């Protein structure tokens, strides 16, 4: 199979907004090249010592992604340009030029693995790719092994970190946890490792379900503790019945703002009174919209946390 590679020229400061826009268009995997140096805290959280030299004067960035040969490339380009025009009202998005090239079915889908290294979420939680070795682990560390495959969720993105920290803060032993849009299963696995008695993960992508099940097995989480199912909890009433009503002490959703808004109208029926709802994946330009939806649907907001351009909201039913 041949793939079409699209490379978009933008500014480093606009990468989060642009990548969020691409996600809303259904583009699930992107490659980012920029000259933004990592901070000292980020370096300490990563299990690497040698970093590349960067031209910090260059504030541009390139975002690349791939489309299958049967997809309408020109239609996608039109949608991207429309999205860039909207984003340009908020900030400098750079030239917005899109280069199109064709590539053979090489192993590009796995090339990103060279850049996915073990890293720390905080003082106790370490995320490790299944194919990497890990040194200098403390006895008190909780090590989570992940191979996301084609599913979203390595744990390195701010949205996932925010969700993980929220789970760690509010989780209690023996609770029931619902993970909507579980992706690679990273949040479900961490919830189980932190003491949840039962965890149910859902995702509309069957590939994500397979990845989550495999990752659960790698982390020695049994099928009795963690179950993963495929379906749309927002619109599918049969799926909602399968998930169960009034059953969960905590629900988490690390998705996108435009999905969290309608989700907030139905998620409450699955959560016990006083249960916790942690949402993330919210770009800061849509924070107020998500807040309004969560409050409208019977929750009170306990806290709002931000990291970079991303927002996580912790609410209680």
UniProtKB/TrEMBL annotation:
**Enzyme kind, highest EC tier:** transferase
The record's subcellular locations are:
Cytoplasm
Q: Which Pfam families match?
A: PrmA
Q: Can you tell me which residues bind S-adenosyl-L-methionine?
A: 160, 181, 203, 254
A single GO BP annotation from the record?
Answer: methylation
* Enzyme Commission number, as recorded: 2.1.1.-
Which GO cellular component terms, listed alphabetically, does the Swiss-Prot or TrEMBL entry include?
cytoplasm; ribosome
Please tell me where this protein is predominantly located.
cytoplasm
Catalytic reaction(s) noted: L-lysyl-[protein] + 3 S-adenosyl-L-methionine = N(6),N(6),N(6)-trimethyl-L-lysyl-[protein] + 3 S-adenosyl-L-homocysteine + 3 H(+)
List the Gene3D superfamilies. Vaccinia Virus protein VP39
Q: Does the keyword Ribosomal protein apply?
A: yes
User: Keywords assigned by UniProt?
Assistant: Cytoplasm, Methyltransferase, Ribonucleoprotein, Ribosomal protein, S-adenosyl-L-methionine, Transferase
**Do you know which InterPro entries this protein is assigned to?**
Ribosomal_L11_MeTrfase_PrmA (IPR050078), Ribosomal_PrmA_MeTrfase (IPR004498), SAM-dependent_MTases_sf (IPR029063)
Query: Could you cite one Gene Ontology molecular function of this protein?
Result: protein methyltransferase activity
What protein family does this chain belong to?
A: Belongs to the methyltransferase superfamily. PrmA family.
Q: Could you tell me what this protein does?
A: Methylates ribosomal protein L11.
Q: What is this protein called?
A: Ribosomal protein L11 methyltransferase
| Originating organism | Anaerocolumna sedimenticola
